[in-house]
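Example record used in the benchmark description.
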Amino acid sequence: MELVHRLYPDISYVYDTKMAEFHGQTMQIFEPEWDWMLKDGHIKHLHVNDYGGGIMDWSDLRVLPIGKGHVDFDKFFVKLAEYGYEGDYTVESTAFGKDGVVDTVMLNRCFKRIREYIK
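Model output (structure tokens):
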């Protein structure tokens, strides 16, 4: 990443909470080796969703609503606030059942939780 940054100093990134958890790296973004991405404003977008499988568990790579998997969003957003993140967010959550009905209650719970974190 540092090589890419040196070659393209204006590059920006999307941080995906599910994929970070999939790799067992959710909180690494706050470690000194990586936090330059936040400190210098290179992370412009957060793709927020949960993950319930183990590390590199390809058989369980489904999207889960926020709070239904292993991502410690409380800890993540407390740390994120310390860096003053002001970028964008996307909330990904499978919101429809096999019958095609959209679960708006669950979606609104996800949005409410994110809003509480970023007040």
